[in-house]
């Protein structure tokens, strides 16, 4: 068995985010579904970008955000994702390495450009995402660094990447490599629309390959096609070693076999932008989990990190997360 030199290796869509404030009526005018993540083509991306207000650009992607949080907490992280050898690809590569995350995936020299996500943030802080996946769609089994997977305590994957067969193969390969090395595998379901599209294959993945599952209330109900959170809770605990289920202002519920812990949401003076809340919850939880903390502490760390990221624009931490979690640790 290889020694673990990495706490978490993330696999996901390597995306550069473009965020801008908008009014509720702008979503209606642009025919956008509030709070959803919608996949768009290059033409639509150009059109929406032209209609956005003043914005800010930063490297993003769900798993990339989670890895940024883990690095900010002091954890050792690595990332696997596909970018093109273009300007946005260089931006993503620079940003993720600059925060201390190992990123050695070779950029593509042909094909689609680096992905971008256009995020419209309404006055209530909620975000509506429109994603052109670009080079992300070309990630496949050949991009999985087996030695890197073997060296990580946990391999963490984002559900957003689940749309193409090659990505599914990459996920399953990574999970098998991790388990053969005695490591654990985690996934975030990412979005209820994503679950709706791939419910059967998601269930197969969760039931047969996942140790630690992250989902919000809508996603877990969609996965099991039930009406209530309690019904979903009963189902998921049959299939995962650990499930961390977030419920916005209601906090979170952590379940593991016969254990159940309710985690209170951390207070926030003002919700500015909910982009990345689930990603940073996973950061805090996985950091605690890989450092050997008890599940209630892991959940509290997740809640602290999520509360920090929703207090400002952008999906990556601004404050010193180490300082914020010091009392909880």
UniProtKB/TrEMBL annotation:
<comment type="similarity">
    <text>Belongs to the carbohydrate kinase PfkB family.</text>
</comment>
<keyword id="KW-0808">Transferase</keyword>
<feature type="domain" description="Carbohydrate kinase PfkB">
    <location>
        <begin position="59"/>
        <end position="318"/>
    </location>
</feature>
<dbReference type="InterPro" id="IPR011611">
    <property type="entry name" value="PfkB_dom"/>
</dbReference>
<dbReference type="Pfam" id="PF00294">
    <property type="entry name" value="PfkB"/>
</dbReference>
<dbReference type="GO" id="GO:0016301">
    <property type="term" value="F:kinase activity"/>
</dbReference>
<keyword id="KW-0418">Kinase</keyword>
<protein>
    <submittedName>
        <fullName>Carbohydrate kinase</fullName>
    </submittedName>
</protein>
<dbReference type="InterPro" id="IPR002173">
    <property type="entry name" value="Carboh/pur_kinase_PfkB_CS"/>
</dbReference>
<dbReference type="InterPro" id="IPR052700">
    <property type="entry name" value="Carb_kinase_PfkB-like"/>
</dbReference>
<dbReference type="InterPro" id="IPR029056">
    <property type="entry name" value="Ribokinase-like"/>
</dbReference>
């Amino acid at each position: 068995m290889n020694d673990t030199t990495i706490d978490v290796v993330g696999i996901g869509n390597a995306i550069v985010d473009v965020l801008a404030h908008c009014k509720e009526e702008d979503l209606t005018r642009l025919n956008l579904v509030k709070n959803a993540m919608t996949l768009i083509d290059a033409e639509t991306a150009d059109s929406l970008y032209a209609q956005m207000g003043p914005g800010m650009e930063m490297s993003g992607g769900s798993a990339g955000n989670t890895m940024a949080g883990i690095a900010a907490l002091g954890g050792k992280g690595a990332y696997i994702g596909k970018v093109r050898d273009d300007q946005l690809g260089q931006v993503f590569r620079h940003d993720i390495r600059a925060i201390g995350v190992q990123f050695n995936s070779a950029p593509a020299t042909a094909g689609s450009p680096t992905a971008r996500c256009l995020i419209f943030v309404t006055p209530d802080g909620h975000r509506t995402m429109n994603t052109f996946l670009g080079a992300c769609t070309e990630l496949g089994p050949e991009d999985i660094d087996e030695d890197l997977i073997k060296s990580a305590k946990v391999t963490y994957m984002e559900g957003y990447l689940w749309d193409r067969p090659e990505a599914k193969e990459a996920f399953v390969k990574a999970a098998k490599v991790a388990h053969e090395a005695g490591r654990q595998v985690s996934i975030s379901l990412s979005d209820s629309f994503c679950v709706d599209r791939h419910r059967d294959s998601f269930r197969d993945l969760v039931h047969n390959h996942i140790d630690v599952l992250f989902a919000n209330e809508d996603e877990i109900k969609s996965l099991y096609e039930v009406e209530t959170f309690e019904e979903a809770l009963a189902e998921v605990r049959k299939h995962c070693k650990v499930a961390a289920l977030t419920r916005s202002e209601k906090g979170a519920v952590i379940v593991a076999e016969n254990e159940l812990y309710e985690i209170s949401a951390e207070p926030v003076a003002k919700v500015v932008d909910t982009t990345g809340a689930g990603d940073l919850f996973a950061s805090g939880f996985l950091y605690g989990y890989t450092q050997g903390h008890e599940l209630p502490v892991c959940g509290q760390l997740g809640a602290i990190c999520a509360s920090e990221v929703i207090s400002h624009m952008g999906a990556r931490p601004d404050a010193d997360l180490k300082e914020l979690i010091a009392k909880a640790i």
